[in-house]
Design goal:
The chain is α/β, with parallel strands linked by helices. It has a domain of 158 residues: Rossmann fold (3-Layer(aba) Sandwich), CATH 3.40.50. It has 12 helices and 14 strands. The strands form 4 sheets. It has a 7-stranded parallel β-sheet with strand order 3-2-1-4-5-6-11, with helices on both faces. Strand 2, helix 2 and strand 3 form a beta-alpha-beta unit. Helix 1 packs across helix 9, helix 8 packs across helix 10 and helix 10 packs across helix 12.
Length: 321
C-alpha cells in the first residue's frame, strides 16, 4: 500500500508513519516542518527506503500542483494545534487549517480515500452548556459557544473541514473518513499539552506542583491506540462518509489524579497546588466509542499508567539532551 501523510512530520503523523512502515507499506510525508527541522527521529525514519519526504506548505496552491496522485490512503493531519497557539493567533489557526483542507478537497480525484483529523473540541460548547452528555456520542449537536472567543477558532476550522470532506466526497466521488480525536497523548507531542507539560515540570522538581483545572476530568488516549483506530477505520468500507470518535473511554481520570500519577512515575515528591483551568476549558471530556467498536472491533490496549510511563521516559531523555 502507498500512503500519503499530509503533516506527517508532526506528532500523530510520525507515529502513523512508523506503524505503516512497520506493516510493510510505502509512505510519503508532506510537511512544512514548522515543528523544526532538527528532528533526529524524523531523520532516522527518512533513512528507510520506504519513506519519501516532500517539503511543502499546504496553504500554498503550488505545493498541490507538485503532488502526484495514485495513493491508496491519504491522511490530512496538518493543523495548527495547542491552546497556546490557538489563543495567540486564532486567525492563523482558521487560515492554515481551513486552507489545508480546502486545497486538498480541490486536489482529490474520484476513487481516492482520505482521512481527516478532527477534534473533540467541537463538543466543548455543548458540554459546558449542559446539552451534551458525557461520555459523548457522535450524534450530539456541536455548539460554538462564542465565535469571538479565540479558543473556538480551532473547533470552527475543524468543523469546516468535516463539512468539506463529507459533502465533497459525495460530490466528487472520493471516499472520506472523519476521525474526531479525544485527548491523544504520547512521546513527541510537544510541550504545551497536559501530560508532557506536567512531566517536564515534575522532572524539574517543581514544588508546590501547580495543577490547572484540578477538578476537571479527561479520558486520555495513547497515540499507538489512536493510530490503530485510524488504520482500522481506513480499512473499513462502512466508515466512508462517517464521523467517528477516536479515543479511550476505559480510563477517564480527574486531572488532580493525573498529576499524582505523573509525580509518582517521575519519582517526584511535591505538594499539589490546584489553580484555575484555562479560560474556556471544558469541565469533562470522554468519548462514547460504541460506533468505533461496532465498525472495527477496536479496543484500547495501553492503559493510562503505562502510557504515562512511556511518555515520561521519552521526555526525560529529551530534556537531558
Amino acid at each position: 500500500m502507498r500512503a500519503l501523510l499530509l503533516g506527517g512530520a508532526g506528532f500523530i503523523g510520525l507515529h502513523l508513519a512508523r506503524r505503516l512502515i512497520g506493516d510493510g507499506h510505502e509512505v510519503s510525508i508532506v510537511d512544512d516542518f514548522s515543528r523544526g527541522r532538527d528532528d533526529a527521529e524524523l531523520a532516522e525514519l527518512c533513512r528507510d527506503p520506504a519513506v519519501g519526504v516532500h517539503p511543502g506548505d499546504l496553504t500554498d496552491p503550488a505545493t498541490w500542483r507538485r503532488l502526484p496522485h495514485g495513493w491508496d490512503q491519504i491522511y490530512l493531519l496538518a493543523a495548527v494545534v495547542g491552546v497556546r497557539n490557538v489563543e495567540a493567533d486564532p486567525a492563523r489557526v482558521v487560515r492554515v487549517n481551513a486552507l489545508s483542507a480546502l486545497h486538498l478537497l480541490d486536489w482529490l480525484i474520484p476513487g481516492e480515500r482520505v482521512f481527516f483529523a478532527s477534534t473533540s473540541e467541537v463538543y466543548a460548547g455543548a458540554v459546558d452548556a449542559g446539552i451534551a452528555p458525557v461520555p459523548t456520542g457522535e450524534h450530539v449537536p456541536v455548539t460554538i459557544g462564542d465565535v469571538t472567543a479565540p479558543r473556538y477558532a480551532y473547533a470552527v476550522s475543524k468543523l469546516l473541514g468535516e463539512a468539506a470532506f463529507i459533502h465533497g466526497a459525495r460530490a466528487k466521488g472520493f471516499e472520506a473518513v472523519v476521525g474526531r480525536f479525544h485527548n491523544v497523548y504520547g512521546p513527541r507531542m510537544g510541550t504545551d499539552h497536559a501530560i508532557p507539560e506536567m512531566a517536564l515540570r515534575a522532572l524539574r522538581g517543581e514544588n508546590p506542583f501547580r495543577v490547572p483545572g484540578a477538578e476537571q476530568s479527561r479520558a486520555f488516549c495513547y497515540v499507538d491506540d489512536a493510530v490503530e483506530a485510524m488504520l482500522r477505520l481506513m480499512a473499513c468500507p462502512d466508515a466512508s462518509g462517517r464521523i467517528v470518535h477516536i479515543g479511550d473511554d476505559t480510563g477517564e481520570t480527574n486531572i488532580a489524579d493525573l498529576a499524582k500519577l505523573v509525580l509518582r512515575v517521575t519519582g517526584a515528591d511535591a505538594a499539589l497546588e490546584p489553580v484555575a483551568g484555562a479560560p474556556g476549558s471544558v469541565g469533562r471530556r470522554c468519548p462514547d466509542l460504541a460506533l468505533l467498536r461496532a465498525m472495527t472491533g477496536y479496543s484500547p490496549a495501553v492503559d493510562l499508567e503505562e502510557g504515562v510511563r512511556r511518555t515520561v521516559e521519552w521526555y526525560r531523555q529529551w530534556a537531558s539532551r
